[in-house]
Amino acid sequence: MKTLISQAELEAGITSMSADINKQLGSTPLTVICVLTGSIILVADLIRRLEMPLRLGALSASSYQGNTVRDILTLDTHLLPNVKGQHVLIVDDIFDTGHTLNEVSKHIQTLHPATVYTAVLLRKNGRREIELDVDFVAFEIPDEFVVGYGLDYQDLYRNLPYVAILEEHEIKQVADPSA
Ligand code: 5GP
Ligand code: MG
Fold first, then answer.
1. How far apart, in Å, are the Cα atoms of 170 and each of 3, 144, 154?
2. Does residue 149 line the site of ligand 1, with CB under 6 A?
3. Is residue 63 in contact with ligand 1, taking CB distance under 6 Å?
4. Cα 24 to chain center, whole Å?
5. Within a domain: residue 174?
6. I want to staple 29 with a disulfide (CB 3.0 to 4.6 A). Which of 41, 53, 112, 135 is the partner?
7. Is the CB of residue 99 below 6 angstroms from any atom belonging to ligand 1?
8. What is the pLDDT of residues 116-163, one digit of tens each?
9. Residue 1: closest CA among 135, 164, 113, 146
10. How far is the CA of 63 from the centre of ligand 2 (A)?
11. How far apart are CA 91 and CA 88, in angstroms?
């Protein structure tokens, strides 16, 4: 495993992103939507640096392998607060192809919020398939599979306090412990 973003760098990046959000939104009341499970740690660190009156909600986005080229994305929205007429900030862990954030964003739009902003910890370079301009991005990263600070591989590594690149042999080790 190779550290890509250290604990100190994460802290600086999130402080800087939260300063941008505070500057852009001022004292506008905000409903923050945590996209579970990956963004749980980011949201905890981010909202403690936000200064406006703030409500917190969550939804869960998960994909499973379908028989098509792309995974099928399902949203579980039963933890969502009422966002009608509210200014909403959707927070996700990573923008890879963009399909997840796009689907979440489209769903929130159907609930008639006043405004929808988006924020991600990481944006992977060269992978975008969706024309969605994320409003706040803490870090741009190369096209590598990363774990830590909320991001998992087979439900492991979310608790790492830094972001690391998972190497080929480590991916095999977890997939097949006997190998
Ligand atoms: P997208 O829909 O933008 O292609 O992908 C977003 C989702 O794919 C993320 O929420 C995350 O669950 C997963 N994902 C994409 N790239 C990575 C990665 O490098 N590491 C991990 N752990 N998950 C990733
Ligand atoms: Mg995810």
1. 14, 13, 12
2. no
3. no
4. 20
5. no
6. 53
7. yes
8. 999 999 999 988 899 999 999 999 999 999 999 999 999 999 999 999
9. 164
10. 8
11. 10
Per-residue pLDDT band at 101 (split at 50, 70, 90)? very high
pLDDT, position 165:
97
- CATH code (residue 38): 3.40.50.2020
* Gap between the Cα atoms of 79 and 178, Å rounded: 39
Provide CB contacts within 8 A for 140, sequence distance 6+.
122, 123, 125
Domains identified in the chain, total number: 1
Domain that holds residue 134: 11-143
96 noted as active-site residue: yes
Residue 24 within a domain: yes
Tell whether 5 is covered by a domain: no
Q: What residue's CA is closest to ligand 1, atom 15?
A: 96
- Per-residue pLDDT at 172 exceeds 80: no
Q: Return the half-sphere exposure (C-beta side, CA atoms, 13 A cut-off) of residue 1.
A: 16
Find the ligand nearest to 102 CA.
1
Q: Is residue 165 part of a domain?
A: no
User: What residue's CA is closest to ligand 1, atom 23?
Assistant: 151
